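Wed. Picked up where I left off yesterday with Nudix-type nucleoside diphosphatase (YffH/AdpP family). The coffee machine is broken again, so keeping this brief.
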Amino acid sequence: MDDFRPISTETLSDAWGALTRHRFALRRRDGTWDEQVREVYDHGHGAAALLHDPEADTVLLVRQFRLPLKLAGQDPYPIEAPAGLLENAAPAERMRAELMEETGYEARGLTHVIDLVMSPGSVTEHIACFIGAYTRDAPSGAGGGAAEEGEDIEVLHIPLPQALDMVRDGRISDAKTVVLIQHLVLSRGVSPDGGIG
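Structure written out below (C-alpha cells, as returned):
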C-alpha cells in the first residue's frame, strides 16, 4: 500500500534547474492522511572525487566562490573535493572530465565508494563519490575550471593529516568532502594516538 498520494505540481522556476511546488497527501504512522505542500529543487545528479598522492600524502582539493554561502553570511570560499553535475554522463566518466577541468590532474584507480543525498528535504540531487590517486608533481593540464561558466578555481594540495584536522575544527565543512576525507582516513586506518596509519 502506497503512503503517498500526489495532488498537484506547479513549476515555480526552470531557469537552470527546476523548482517545483508539490501538494500531496501522506499517510501518517497512525493511519490518518495529512495534506502537505513542499518545494523541491532538481538540477540533476552529480559526482565528486577525492584524490590522494600516496608519496606526498596530500589530497587534491579546490576552492571557489559559492554565492549561497555568501548570502548565508558564511565564508563564500569553501574548501571542497572537486565535483560536478553528471549532465547525462556516467558518473566515473564525468568525474574524470571534471577533475581535468577543475584541477588539471588525471585520476588513477578511481573507485566508487558511496552515493550521498545532500539535502533530502528539498533537493533531489544525489552525488556519486569516488576515491582515487594522483601525482602532485605531474599535472596534465592547467585546471582552474571553465572560464565560460564563470569558474575561477584554486587548486589546493593539502597534507592528509592537515585535511583531517581541518574537518575536525570546521575549516572543511562541505559534507561530501568531509565524508570523502573520513572514508580515506578510515580505509588507511587510524592509530590509537590519532595519527593516520
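Quick read: The chain has two domains: 4-42, 46-188.
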